[in-house]
Specification:
heterotrimer; A mainly alpha; B alpha+beta; C mainly alpha; A: MetI-like fold; globular; C: MetI-like fold; 2 domains; disordered C terminus
């Protein structure tokens, strides 16, 4: 018993764990403290729930932003998942090495860069508008529909689609390729035609991974700042944009509301992540 | 049920010079189980791919009951394959796995339910309908895979080394299970294996494959006792060949045009004293294997492998012995060229 | 005919994937490209030179590279011992540790950054490179740990025992056996820690507080209302390191690409 170095795993884990626990823990504590009005920077040490009341007040901008954020996240996620599924099934039947490279290539373009590309391509004086003008479809930039910095977040959604479709496609493809001979061949041999193979074999096979991946995508979109900040409008604003505006407000008392919104975002994203993890676990158990 | 005719199949893969199958012909009777035995690269798995339709032959024909299947879609051929791995769908339970073939044919759920039950009884695993495929042992998984393959009453059952990933005990048990079910249902079957014992235990006839050609095709008994060709004899574990009169032990391959005789290792006697039909030799190895003793004796510049069941004498390395080749166990084999 | 349609569709897909790059090149190297013209007609290096001569560009490039390199190195050093334990040992609390390391991938950078902003202001790390590096390690650490622990899980410890039996010192074994066998994974892990840090906007903004300027910060403010040619040029500079890394690690990506992808 004494030979077993019981503390040694923890010793190896200590540096990394300390960093994570200290930094995440501290940031969470500060967020909670400031959300209840405990703001040392302005010497405010009274604890109150007024920021929560302000934020959750039915007339507050929070609700509009929540709905806007949900709309962006849900729409982007569902469209990405559907397109990715189609694309992956299509690609898996005519697999080429260059596909993986092409999809991975997308990794080189951070979300911020994709947003910039969308901006240059779809804005009213952007490339697409120029092409439309050349073809005589429109006369002036103003004739071109507002696709970026629009009220419905179309530019935001398109920007996410550009990143998330390749992500989910690779997720699905890697599941499909992990089978050495492929259940597809087995199913065909047992008499299934092409559509039956997609429906009874491919989709059930990739569904857990697709679902888990979609939830990750949802959580990411729901909580990310750059894209809606760059491609969004002043109203409605996405939740993270709203949170940061409050946080950076010169009036430090507004920070509490920023923290409240940030905590709500974290809460929602965490719940979604837990669901996603559970799906992953169940999948592992089934295949056990 | 089904007679299978394979007629002059040729197949060469692109980027490869040597053909995988050369003018390959074979007829399989209704309800027969034919074992294909051969080393990897002999064309066994290519043949299965051609039959199931995963690949197409360059020329030749495959017929079920005298009609060609080459232009039938792979999913309509009724040639169902069972692999070394069970390939049970992990997202389906046992019942849905077995019923898969019926479901895609559009069978009603009552029929599927009844058929699955019947198949589970047949494979000796009643009542496991609701189990997940991940909860099955290797042997159970293969049984379920067998049930899944047979539930649609296929014209031809193709077994691609279905037992080679199992432990010996389970394996022997499953040989019996598969053999009995195959006989009971009378389904025409091709069984691919590289295990000689398994091929002999299971098949009505054995086809020995080498480099895309059939070297020999006969019942296990005939092939074991009297293989007709040198290649077939080697397949069946014979390593000693003699030629001429008086008999001379031959090295590996036989080049002379004289008659070639072969003898199984267990028929060769190794003894201390000389006698009729014996030749002097020197023991280079003598291994006690429990039920028998294996000898390697240098005779006339080459090595003779012999095997005598217990009780058998043990000799030290370098001992002078006499090796006897009883005439009644010698059989004539044809040279490779004429095989 | 059918084959023709399929291959055509594939090329459309590829085209969409390289389109941003072409778009940036068109905007960055063209001049006097006025509204209705569908394609650039005059090419120039002017914008490029202009951007390079801007007082902020070179320092922000250098600062970004420096921060990302530090983050890559520190993540590796922190991750290696932890990854070894997670990959090779079974111990009580393993699940919990795994979950803790998973947390930074769940909690949005927005929340982390806002909380850390306050902490770092108090301890004097706000607006410093050290503070930004520390903040960047939070998102990179899980990915380096997961990449390396799965590499360790595939690593057979008997190689180490063999070296030990042959008389090698533990340090020698670590350097010449363990690290050597893990080199591909180490490179991938470090490169992706580098990339995650390189493209980090929000954490840099919140911790750097306008004093630590990296390329994404410049790009973001340019994109919020700047000249398209400048935006495109900055974008090209911004994606140059990732494109290089992707090209170099194309093969390894099949294994690890996806776990890292989502951090951008």
């Amino acid at each position: 018993m004494r030979d077993k170095p019981i503390f040694s795993p923890w010793l190896s884990l200590a540096p990394a764990l300390t960093i994570v626990i200290l930094l995440l823990g501290a940031s969470l504590l500060y967020a909670i403290a400031e959300s209840v009005g405990y703001i040392s920077a302005i010497g405010q040490h009274e604890i109150s729930l007024s920021a929560y009341r302000e934020t959750l007040n039915l007339n507050s901008e929070f609700w509009t932003s929540l709905i806007f954020s949900l709309w962006i996240s849900v729409a982007s996620t569902i469209i990405s998942a559907a397109v990715a599924l189609t694309l992956a099934v299509w690609l898996s039947e005519r697999s080429r090495n260059s596909d993986t490279f092409a999809l991975n290539w997308n990794l080189a373009f951070p979300h911020l860069v994709w947003s910039v590309a969308i901006l240059l391509f779809l804005s009213q004086s952007g490339l697409l508008a120029r092409w439309a003008a050349t073809l005589g479809i429109i006369q002036m930039p103003a004739d071109f529909p507002v696709l970026v910095r629009d009220r419905f977040g179309i530019g935001i959604i398109l920007s996410y689609l550009g990143k998330e479709i390749p992500f989910l496609t690779i997720t699905i493809l890697s599941v499909l390729r992990s089978q050495s001979i492929g259940f597809d061949v087995v199913a065909e041999n047992l008499g299934a035609n092409r559509w039956q193979r997609v429906r009874y074999v491919t989709i059930p096979q990739v569904l857990p991974a697709l679902l888990a991946g979609s939830l990750i995508v949802f959580g990411f979109i729901f909580s990310s700042y750059e894209v809606p900040a760059l491609l969004g409008v002043g109203y409605p604003r996405a939740l993270p944009v709203l949170a940061l505006r409050f946080f950076l407000d010169p009036d430090l008392r507004a920070r509490s509301e920023g923290m409240v919104i940030s905590l709500i975002i974290t809460l929602i994203v965490t719940v979604v992540a837990v669901i996603s993890l559970k799906i992953g676990e169940r999948k592992e158990k089934d295949e056990g | 049920m089904t007679t299978v005719n394979i007629i002059s199949l040729n197949k060469t893969y692109p980027n490869q010079s040597a053909p995988v199958l050369k003018d390959f012909s074979l007829s399989i009777h209704d309800g027969e189980m034919v074992a294909f035995l051969g080393p990897s690269g002999s064309g066994k798995s290519t043949l299965l791919k051609l039959i199931t339709g995963i690949e197409r032959p360059d020329s030749g024909d495959i017929q079920f009951d005298d009609s060609s299947i080459l232009n039938i879609d792979p999913n309509k051929r009724g040639a169902v394959l069972m692999f070394q791995k069970s390939y049970l769908f992990p997202f389906l339970n046992v019942e849905d796995n077995i019923g898969f073939g019926l479901k895609v044919q559009g069978a009603s759920s009552q029929i599927i339910h009844a058929e699955v039950k019947r198949m589970l009884n047949l494979i000796g695993l009643p009542g496991i309908e609701k189990r997940k495929s991940g909860q099955l042992s290797g042997g159970e998984g293969q049984r379920v895979a067998l049930a899944r393959a047979l539930v649609t009453n296929p014209k031809l059952l193709l077994l691609d080394e279905p037992l080679s990933s199992l432990d010996t005990e389970v394996r022997i048990n499953l040989q019996e299970v598969i053999r009995n079910i195959q006989r009971e249902l009378g389904v025409t079957t091709i069984f691919v294996t590289h295990d000689l014992g398994e091929a002999m235990a299971m098949s009505d006839r054995m086809a020995l494959l080498l480099n895309g050609e059939i070297v020999a095709l006969d019942t296990p008994e005939n092939l074991f006792h009297r293989p007709r060709s040198l290649a077939a004899a080697k397949f069946m574990g014979v390593s000693t060949f003699l030629s001429g009169d008086p008999l001379i032990v031959q090295k590996e391959a036989c080049s002379s045009s004289d008659k070639v005789f072969a003898i199984r290792p267990e028929h060769i006697r190794v003894q201390k004293d000389t006698c009729d039909q014996s030749m002097p030799g020197v023991v280079s190895d003598c291994v006690f294997r429990g039920e028998y003793v294996e000898y390697l004796v240098a005779v006339d510049g080459t090595h003779v492998r012999a095997r005598m069941s217990m009780p058998a004498p043990m000799f030290p390395h370098g001992a002078q012995v006499f090796v006897k080749f009883p005439r009644e166990h010698l059989f004539e084999v044809q040279n490779q060229e004429s095989a | 005919m059918k084959h023709f349609v399929t291959s055509k569709f594939r090329y459309i897909l590829y085209l969409v994937l390289v389109a941003p790059l072409l778009l940036f090149i068109a905007y960055a190297f063209s001049t006097r490209w006025f509204f209705p013209q569908p394609f650039p007609i005059e090419w120039t290096m002017e914008t490029f030179q202009h951007v390079f001569h801007d007082s902020q560009t070179i320092p922000s490039l250098a600062q970004g590279l420096w921060i990302a390199s530090l983050v890559g190195l520190l993540s590796l050093i922190l991750a290696l011992p932890a990854a070894r334990v997670l990959g090779l040992r079974k111990f009580r609390g393993r699940q919990l540790v795994w979950l803790l390391f998973f947390l930074p991938t769940i909690i949005p950078p927005l929340s982390v950054g806002m909380g850390l902003n306050i902490l770092f202001l108090r301890v004097g790390l706000a607006g410093t490179i050290a503070g930004v590096v520390l903040a960047h390690i939070i998102p990179t650490l899980p990915y380096t740990i997961f990449t390396l622990s799965s590499a360790y899980a595939r690593f057979d410890e008997n190689y180490e025992f063999q070296a030990l039996a042959l008389g090698a010192s533990p340090w020698h074994i670590f350097l010449n056996v363990t690290l050597r066998m893990m080199t591909p994974s180490l490179v991938v892990a470090a490169l992706f820690a580098f990339l995650i840090s390189w493209s980090q906007y929000l954490l840099t903004l919140l911790i750097g507080g306008g004093q630590v300027i990296t390329l994404p910060i410049l790009l973001f403010s340019a994109a919020s209302g700047g000249n398209p040619s400048v935006i495109a040029t900055l974008s090209l500079l911004f994606i140059a390191p990732p494109v290089l890394v992707i090209a170099v690690t194309a093969r390894q990506l099949n294994q690890h690409g996806n776990q890292i992808r989502e951090q951008y």
